[in-house]
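Q: Joint fold for the lines below.
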Amino acid sequence: MSLNIAVIIKLEPDFSDGNVSYNPDGTLNRAETKTILGHHSAIASQAAFYAKVKYGARICIGTMGPPMADLALEQSLLLSDAEELHLYSDRSFAGADTLSTAEVLKTGISKMNDGKAMDIVFSGFRASDGETGQTGPQTAWKLGFTFLGNVISYEIDIEKRVITALRLISYGNNSLIEQVQAPLPVFIAIDPSYKSPFITVSQRLSASRYQKEAMIRSRNYKSLLKIFNAKELGVDPKLVGLPGSPTIVYKVEKIPKIKSNRSAQTVENIDPNNISNILEKIHETIA
Amino acid sequence: MEQFDVVIVGGGSAGLAALKHLSSKGIQSVLMEAGSTVGTKNVSGGILYSKNPQTGKVYNVDEIFENFLQEKPWERQITKYILNCVSKDKVLSIDLTDSHEYQSNFGCSVLLNKLNSWFAKQSLEVAERNGGGIVNGVHVRNISWDEEKGKTIIQTDELDDFEAKAIIASDGVNSEVAEITGARKKFSPPELYQGVKVVVKLPEEIIEERFDLSPGEGTAHIFAGDVTLGHIGGGFLYTNIDSLSAGVVYHYDSLISNPMGPNNLVNALLNNPFVKEYIKDEVALEPYPDKSLSKMEQLRIKFAVNKLIKRWEKLRFEYYSHEGKKRFLDDKEFNSIEDVKSKMDAIHKELLEKYNTRFETDYVELEYSTKLIPDGKRCRMKKPYIKNILFIGDAAGRGLFIGPRIEGLNVGIDDAVRASNAIKQALEKNNLDVASNYLGELYSQSVQESPYTMDMERIDKYYIKTIIDTAGKQIPSQKIGKYRLLFRLFQNDKLRNISIDIVNKIGYNNMLSLIESEETYIHTPINIAAKLGTKTISEYSLSIPELSQRISNLSYNDDPQSHIKIINPRSEFMKKMVTLCPTKCYSLEGEDVVLQHEGCIECGTCSPETEWRHPRGEKGIQYKYG
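A: Joint structure:
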């Protein structure tokens, strides 16, 4: 029995590059900012890859964004060895909040794999560019799928079409791991701590083989790419872009930088007296 | 439980050759490598030979990897082999190219990360066709046998247990497979050499000009005399494409009897005026900041200078490279090579005049590494197997160190093929019964027939003749006093043959202390160099990095779990280890030796008296060059 998997990802500013550009109103200047596959989206891609290696799943990746977002699709392909890539791109999608993005993604997912139903949809925990972690749950709600958030591992009983997942949940200052079971289809927002548990030799060998295939496939990723505009998707114009976004960014304010009142003391060499002094300072600070 | 036909433990060149050969015979084979990728934990001197012995057959790299000669995953083909007798600043260079070419098809300098990555690619393609492959980041923790059920079970730190019909142990000189199965004891200091190496950066065409080489050709210099600071051993300087491998190899027991930091030994070689002249290059040094400027301005200048220096270094390195020149034109970055030179000179001028950057003669060190090397004459396993596990290469203690003849990689590859052939035969006969030892004896017999084994057991008089003949022509015997008689005797075929026959009859092993003595390795070359050598003057100072800098320049995937446990912190050996550890992992606190830090580069120097394991999969040292 085959398993159909969708991954929804996001092209995000490369904050690590220190090269982020802002508009005068404080919003991000996406045109001038280097973009990459978001960190959480990369983890979602890896989580889907586990299903490919272990259960032979077929993977389709989708994203809503400008034409250059196909770069994120290529990077996600490298991580997941996906068979199909979707880009939902239309000027009318501009200004979308999480709800209208979810509408586009829901419609896009319904077009994946020639319209065949998805068994699992993966998303990242959240995006790193000011996102609120709502796109995933809202897409799940629109799809009518069971939503499992903060998933740190999962196994599937293909015959029974049941997924067993471990979730990392916060409980006050502590974290708990909760085991849940749900019938397919499900929507999984993967936890940032997820790591694919390839624990058999065969899985490792398959993973290595698929990664090699992904490398080859990524060289020609545009042949796997399907681009949909609003019309091709058949979305209701009232539900996407600004008209479909109930939330409005009123104003963006920069958080003022706190002026540092600390001064550094340089220790030139490591001799026992200096080390004692450092230890004394530490004791003073934490006392 | 999963089962595989053959599991190979260790992804060095021998293990990868076994994977390739077994897979090409249609046998499902899986290689387990502890490093995050193949090649990151390997270090070599190193020259890889393809040999052509007059009697017997060896299996060469170009036979196992068919594309080896076309794709050239090596550095340079060694066409000159020079022995240098050294006494301080005096050196007598003796051309031993004839002995280097003795029974050889070719010998080439290699950097193991690059070579083994290429081997891995070639092997993997064939292995995958048979349901096998390479599994990286897996550390084999235990191997056990359920003899009733006829099962061999492999346990790792990372994966579910699995079974293998046969195992090839290619996990190096510190073979954990040997230790956990009881196949052999850890090698003791008298059975080992310690090697210390640095990789020195130098542009391709400057190497060719300095060593008088054509493109693709290389030189090997070996050094005897005082470069090892009184230890039995020698130094080496091999040309790579755009770097040099420089280092020393010395008897481990010689170092124990006269403890000295191994990094100081490599420094002594680098500081030799003769070597200094080979490794020197033009190096840009960042200027001191002008403190009268504002901090922001100082920072701005620092970034600008840094960027310009990087650009200049990159342009220069590419400009002095055959491929680099081609790339410049292919990428249409420059219209002509002259334009590249003009740009380079312009940046140089700007750095010099605008930013007061200094350009000095110095050398650039890329990587520091060390490795234990088995002395095959002393420690090779007489029965290189236990049950259905076959030991190859360093893991079996095999390597050739006979005067200037230094071989290890090719010996490991020969073993790999012999092990693979034995497994194939045993599989065909359906006789992998561990109680019968059929597989082990088959392999053992094949190894015994290897010409390399013969070379480890006895002195080859024809090889000695080649050395004496070539050296004799270049050393005017009337000028070397007490060695004159010795040379005369050895140049006489009959007398030389008789004395070598006697040595072989008594047993080469029994004569080793006489042959490999301070007299032969240290005093004789020093005396020859002092009397006949040419003085070299080198007037620049090397900026040799401190050991701590060398270690911090290496890449590690740190493991919070220690892979070293000191057995007896008060033993004399461990006290010496405070000095002998090449990365100074130990210190003395009161009477006890304690593990100070883990800048461990997995050489295993301390393993005789520690519970030493390789770190868990993907953890530990990651060599870039190797």
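Q: Anything notable?
A: Chain A has seven helices and eleven strands. Chain A touches chain B through eight residues (CB under 8 Å).
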